[in-house]
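lol ok so funny story. i was supposed to be doing the assay writeup but got distracted and ended up predicting the structure for this chain instead. priorities right. anyway since i did it might as well share w the group, maybe its usefull for someone
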Amino acid sequence: MVNALTKHMRSLLVYDTEHVRGERTLATALAQPEGLRLWKGYSFNPMTAVRFQYTVEDHQLKLSNITLPEEVSWVGFRVHAVGYNWDTLEGKLHSGGWHFEQQVNAGLSYGLPKVEAEYHNILYVLELQFFEEKEGAFLPVRTEEKGVWVVEYW
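and the output, tada:
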């Protein structure tokens, strides 16, 4: 997963047109509309059969047209926010709680985690995992169908 992410991030460096090759930065590349467009919606697990559309409005992540494998009974969603300062190269992870859903046909909406004001750039990541309910507890189902997506960045 890390190698695929690194490869994708390096491919975005071509959108940094302000610096010469070898001095390009991801911060400058993501400031360009095309670089940002290719970053949004990145799937850490491109082999998954899970598909959905999303929008972000009023600090809410709204999911629609969700397609899950038929054998899935429960799905868990969790939104993470990584506040990042490109100048100091410091960041902090803020994670929301798990939301367990059995029916996802009507669409879903979740609040985005709050991030401290000192971070000018925020990366929102949606984590999705399949679960089974046993004796009132949710246990992860180990399949290749779980996934993580970058859903927003600003």
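Helices lie at 2-12, 26-30, 33-39. The mean pLDDT is 82.
back to the writeup now i swear
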